[in-house]
């Protein structure tokens, strides 16, 4: 994959679905619509393609076999739903080919804490061993990889322990990955130094990029510099709007501060996969594509 020039990632899938009148709550979050209304997911992906995204991230972030089972979906059907998340993104990406564009699909592998749906992806430290986390993530990764994404997004990782587990779980899947942490105060959410966390991927050729996502935009520049210096790899950066998620109140608080112009500094520091996460919609991604010199 050529990362000599920046690629534009999409933005938050949940907020685009909400803008279209679709709820994405509960333990499956956006993955619930793989069951209830897959066409809505396809339409949201298409909106990001029109905005200029070069990479679409699938609706599998909060998906799990146990979560689907609690919705009454048996295991084989759940595996197909993981595959559907890739196929829906691929259909939107392929539609861009008529305009001579290549849009990539990244299969989203969210952290264990996201599946708990209690905000613990912003804390980490679940009390599980690396082996237990590998056992949880491996079937999810296998199901996504079988559907043929271009890469996997091991994303919103709060803890270096879980990062180690995710990298182990992805061994032999045949698909390159990026690894991105959610951070606060210049550390992982579990409190580890970022240099130590990024170093886990430094010698791993399967890892195309390392970086941060689902964090305050102000955290990005220093994290990009540390990631680039520690690993020598391209960096991925896609923060939230700057608002803060109130897990108890189930709502966002604060003021949006995400700005497309900030991406120029991130690019200059080594970021090559740049986008937005929660509360960053297609309009902001269109601005980003323009700022990064997208000719479309």
From TrEMBL:
Cross-referenced InterPro entries: BHMT-like, HCY_dom, HCY_dom_sf, Hcy_S-methyltransferase
SUPFAM superfamilies tied to this protein: Homocysteine S-methyltransferase
Gene Ontology biological process terms from the UniProt entry: methionine biosynthetic process; methylation; S-methylmethionine cycle
Pfam families in the record: S-methyl_trans
Coiled-coil region(s): none
Entry keywords, A to Z: Metal-binding, Methyltransferase, Transferase, Zinc
Enzyme class: transferase
Positions that bind Zn(2+): 214, 277-278
Essential cofactor(s): Zn(2+)
UniProt KW Lipid metabolism keyword: no
Record domain Hcy-binding: where: 1-292
EC number: 2.1.1.10
Molecular function GO terms recorded: S-adenosylmethionine-homocysteine S-methyltransferase activity; zinc ion binding
Keyword Zinc: yes
PANTHER family from the UniProt entry: HOMOCYSTEINE S-METHYLTRANSFERASE-LIKE ISOFORM 1, ZGC:172121
Alphabetical list of NCBIfam families matching this protein: PRK09485.1
Protein name: Homocysteine S-methyltransferase
């Amino acid at each position: 994959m050529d990362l000599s020039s920046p690629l534009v990632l999409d933005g938050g899938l949940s907020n685009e679905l909400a803008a279209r009148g679709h709820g994405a709550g509960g333990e499956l979050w956006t993955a619930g619509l793989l069951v209830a209304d897959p066409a809505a997911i396809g339409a949201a992906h298409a909106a990001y393609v029109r905005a200029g995204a070069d990479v679409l991230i699938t609706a599998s972030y909060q998906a799990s076999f146990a979560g689907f089972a609690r919705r009454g979906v048996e295991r084989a059907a759940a595996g197909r739903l993981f595959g559907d998340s890739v196929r829906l993104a691929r259909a939107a990406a392929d539609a861009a080919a008529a305009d001579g564009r290549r849009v990539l699909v990244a299969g989203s592998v969210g952290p264990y804490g996201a599946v708990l749906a209690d905000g613990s992806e912003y804390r980490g430290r679940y009390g599980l061993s690396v082996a237990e986390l590998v056992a949880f993530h491996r079937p999810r990764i296998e199901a996504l990889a079988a559907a043929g994404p271009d890469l996997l997004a091991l994303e919103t990782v709060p803890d270096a322990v879980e990062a180690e587990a995710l990298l182990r779980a992805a061994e032999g899947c045949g698909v390159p990955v990026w690894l991105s942490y959610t951070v606060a105060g210049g550390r992982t959410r579990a409190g580890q130094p970022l240099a130590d966390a990024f170093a886990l991927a430094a010698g791993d050729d399967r890892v195309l990029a390392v970086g941060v996502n689902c964090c305050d935009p102000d955290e990005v520049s220093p994290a990009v510099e540390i990631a680039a210096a520690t690993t020598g790899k391209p960096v991925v950066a896609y923060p939230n709007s700057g608002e803060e998620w109130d897990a108890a109140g189930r709502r966002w608080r604060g003021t949006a501060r995400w700005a497309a112009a900030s991406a120029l500094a991130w690019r200059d520091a080594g970021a090559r996969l740049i986008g937005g996460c929660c509360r960053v919609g297609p309009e902001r991604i269109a601005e980003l594509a323009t700022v990064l010199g997208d000719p479309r």
